[in-house]
Amino acid sequence: MYDPDLYDKYSEFQRRDAKEFIPYIVSKMTRKPSEVVLDLGCGSGFNTRNILFPALSEVSNKETPANFVHVYAIDVSKTMVDFACIRYAHPQITYTVADVMKDETEFHCKFDKIFSLHVLHWIVDQGKALGRLFELLKTNGEIAFYYISKAPVFAVYDMMSRNPKWAPFLNDVSEFIPKSYFSADPAQDMRDIMTSIGFNVQESSNYSRKFRFDSVENMIDAAMAANPFVHKIPSELKSEYKEDFRKCFMTLLYYAPTRDSPNSVEVDYSIVLVRGQKRV
Ligand SMILES: C[S@@+](CC[C@H](N)C(=O)[O-])C[C@H]1O[C@@H](n2cnc3c(N)ncnc32)[C@H](O)[C@@H]1O
């Protein structure tokens, strides 16, 4: 993703997932007085600063002393990291540009906990990425992540790539349609990958989800904000690309009007949520 302002404005659906999943994930983890945490793929930093960090720092009851948490939030996109450093700065969060796929990514520490929210569907070789995360965890360290396994937007990418007008800009489309999209049980596939790396998998679950957007325009803006191809489209063709993208998406949507929101549309998608531990 290349436009942090747009992503920050139109990531209501990623924020909703974080608000629902993070308290659950964190409640299942152990807590130490001092913890070093990695957030892989922090994007604009909103969820790192406003949802993950407070959940990790919260005092659960009077007997539990407040713990000291430092979060290293990384993203491969420099524009995202620059934005996060300004908009979501905190003395206990360090935002850094880093690609988890590059072995030369060096940290001067190992992590007690690793999180990754809505990222793994961007990564083709998930086994390699998770192998790197295994190396970066301390023994008995915990990992939790969730990502989109199925969503209509992947069918839209495929349709757009078959249109001769857009095909030259979408020649790497297969890298952005995750294998899970074609799988009968993505959570079981992920459990197998995690187990083969050496993780003790505590949970790997498929969740069917829905998200309601107030209007088609709102939904298209959100999909464009996370669209991996739009930066390759020449500026004079961008509005035409968006219009064709909208037409393709319309065939896969359904209207779900309510009294308060008569133009709203609903999108079905699936999430894989994983919790595991490094035991050696
Ligand atoms: C959909 S955003 C999710 C952002 C944030 N975690 C959230 O919940 O809103 C996915 C992010 O993963 C980042 N990303 C993709 N591949 C990566 C890699 N190999 N290493 C680090 N970050 C990566 C992208 O740059 C993008 O900002």
Description:
- The structure is a single chain.
- This protein has 280 residues and is an alpha/beta fold.
- 36% of the residues lie in helices and 26% in strands.
- Strands 1, 2, 3, 4, 5, 6, 7 and 8 form an eight-stranded mixed beta sheet that branches.
- Strand 2 (68-75), helix 4 (78-87) and strand 3 (93-97) form a beta-alpha-beta unit.
- Helix 2 packs parallel to helix 3, helix 6 (152-161) crosses helix 9 and helix 8 (216-225) packs across helix 9 (238-250).
- The longest helix has 16 residues, at 12-27.
- It is globular and about 50 Å long.
- Bound molecules: S-adenosylmethionine.
Which consecutive residue ranges, at least 5 long each, have pLDDT under 50? none
Bound molecules: S-adenosylmethionine
Helix content: 25-40%
Strand content: 25-35%
Sequence of secondary-structure elements: HHEHEHEEHEHHEHHEE
Mean pLDDT: 92
- Give a count of the beta strands, DSSP E runs of length 2 or more: 8
- Rounded to the nearest angstrom, the distance between the terminal CA atoms is 36 Å
Query: How many strands, which pairing sense, and closed or not: the largest β-sheet?
Result: 8 strands, mixed
Oligomer: single chain
The dominant shape is globular
Protein name: Juvenile hormone acid O-methyltransferase
Organism: Orchesella dallaii
Pfam families: Methyltransf_23
Which key phrases capture this entry?
280 residues, SAM-dependent_MTases_sf, alpha/beta, Juvenile hormone acid O-methyltransferase, binds S-adenosylmethionine, 9 helices
